[in-house]
Design a protein that fits this description.
This protein is α+β, with helices and mostly antiparallel strands. It has a domain of 102 residues: Gcn5-related N-acetyltransferase (GNAT) (Aminopeptidase). 29% of the residues lie in helices and 39% in strands. The protein is built from four helices and seven strands, in the order E-H-H-E-E-E-H-E-H-E-E. The protein has a seven-stranded mixed beta sheet. It is globular.
Length: 147
């Protein structure tokens, strides 16, 4: 498996994975494609034999980055793909001068919260009723580092 920057050839698979993982909240293929030319964006994919198994998307403003999306195909979870993507993303962000990564996670998403704890993210706030279907609060998590 390789971790690489998302290219146009990955977009259709990323969009399908979005639908599979996020249903009605999924980003459209058009929205994902627009990230390729957004100078604030960095999206990475995990690819094996031409198949996108996972991805992570981010946007950086000044020296702060927001992780917008991370997903791994349900058949491939528990194999360290999300961890690898996030670790590689942080490495790339450091090289770009970012000093932190912030994200939201469903308050009930214990597997994701465990991953973020393992990667030393800290809870810094709550967004009430952030998610729909079902309605739920989001925990705001942040990881900072020296540039």
């Amino acid at each position: 498996m390789i971790f690489a920057q998302m290219k146009e050839t990955h977009v259709a698979q990323v969009a399908e994975l979005e639908k599979l993982c996020f249903g009605t909240a999924a980003w459209s293929e058009k929205s994902i494609t627009s990230e390729l030319t957004n100078p604030l964006s960095l999206w990475l994919v995990a690819v094996e034999e031409g198949r996108v198994l996972g991805y992570v998307g981010s946007q950086t403003v000044m020296d702060e980055t927001d992780m917008m999306n991370v997903a791994v195909h349900p058949d491939c979870r528990g194999q360290g793909i999300a961890t690898g993507l996030i670790v590689d993303l942080i490495g790339a962000l450091k090289l770009r001068g970012s000093r932190c990564l912030t994200l939201e996670v469903r308050a009930s998403n214990e597997p994701a919260k465990g991953l973020y704890r393992m990667l030393d993210f800290q809870e810094v706030g709550i967004r009430k009723n952030y998610y729909r279907n079902p309605r739920e609060d989001a925990l705001i998590l942040r990881k900072e580092w020296e540039v």
